[in-house]
Amino acid sequence: MRQPSQSAHDSQVDARNETINIYVNGDILPKEEAVVSVYDSGFMLGDGMWEGLRLHDGEWAFFDDHMDRLFNSLKSVSIDIGTGPSGIRDILDRTAAANGMTGDAHCRLMVTRGRKAKPFQHPSLSRFGPTIVAIVEHSRPVASLKGRGVRLATVPQVRGLPMSQDPKYNSHSKLNCVIACLQAEQAGADEALMLDPHGFVNTTNACNFFIVRRGEVWTSTGDYCMNGVTRRKVIDLCRENGTPVFEKNYSLYEAYGADEAFLTGTFGALTPVAEIDGKPIGEDEGAGPVTRHIGELYSDLIALNVAEQKAARR
Ligand SMILES: Cc1ncc(COP(=O)(O)O)c(C=O)c1O
Fold it and tell me: Recorded GO terms, molecular function (predicted)?
């Protein structure tokens, strides 16, 4: 029997999320009052950047890595928010505190060029910005994500070249990824496996993608995909723990024949892949031994990072 569909970002239903408080431009507001203008650059054009961060034991895991990516992106598109990482940390901490959260929470931090004077594209019309919003929700990935993996379908939508819209921008405009996801859904899968412009396996629409082949861990070269924080941590963990890991070009031929495959992302950490284009990956639709092992190392790394951040704050 066909399994019900799931997404790599499925979280447990939590009624408290209906009444959370949300940060909007200096204010912390009840969810129903937390709104931005219809003239906002993010709404009108997708002209903004975002980060997803998770709260563990009072700390934002890998905060510095997320800020490095965010501020690199903002600089690249000339959005000046008048504060640095410490200002962002303050926003995130205030929002978590306003919701009584210390862990199992996920933040979507959004920064746009702000409200425009007129409904047209030119960035100079964004005169009242920036807009900064932090939504922090109670969030636990559903257990089934670890139990049975996601089903991927390869889709016609490919990753972009860096000189059109560099896929390293975590931009508000995710239309390329959204189209890919729609195509995957219409093909009966959960999420999309996207190829690069040369036909090599690259990434999924919302997570980075790894395969395990004959004891080796492979992922794409890093071109054309999001420079995922989790992706980098997993590669480093493999290196430090003696698991051969390669950032390289490979095709669907090797992906279909993989022993295991998994996705990486801040929300779900490592999520096993059960099938690609209807072809089963691994023995039991779930995580294989290598995926499980790296997943444990990654949990330990979060705990270490949290402890280090706590010590640095003292
Ligand atoms: C397209 C895409 N790939 C991968 C990721 C995972 O990145 P990270 O590990 O930093 O959460 C994201 C998350 O922002 C993403 O949007």
Answer: L-isoleucine-2-oxoglutarate transaminase activity; L-leucine-2-oxoglutarate transaminase activity; L-valine-2-oxoglutarate transaminase activity
